[in-house]
Fold this protein.
Amino acid sequence: MTVHRNRSNEGGHVPMRPLWLCHRCGQPWPCGSAKLALVAEYRDVSLSLFLYLAGCLHEAIDDLHRLNPTVTGTAADLFDRFLGWPVRHRRLSSAEPQTPEGT
């Protein structure tokens, strides 16, 4: 089994730690471009995407709390930022009408 990691810093939308902002665009990570890249990278192993993002969430909570405990954000906000969007993406993908192959 291949281990997927979106770790390349060369022009990629990767997290800038300990701030957890996108290294390329400065938006909170995962930014829109990072989300698209992650969905593409993990398209065949969605459980691995959730495990990867859960690990990132855990690290982000530690990093952000260490930087400034009063503005870490709520647990719900951080959960949604890291783990809420793949669930919404998955629901939208499965709701799209499927066309039979070969038509």
Remarks:
- The mean pLDDT is 83.
- The longest helix spans residues 46-67.
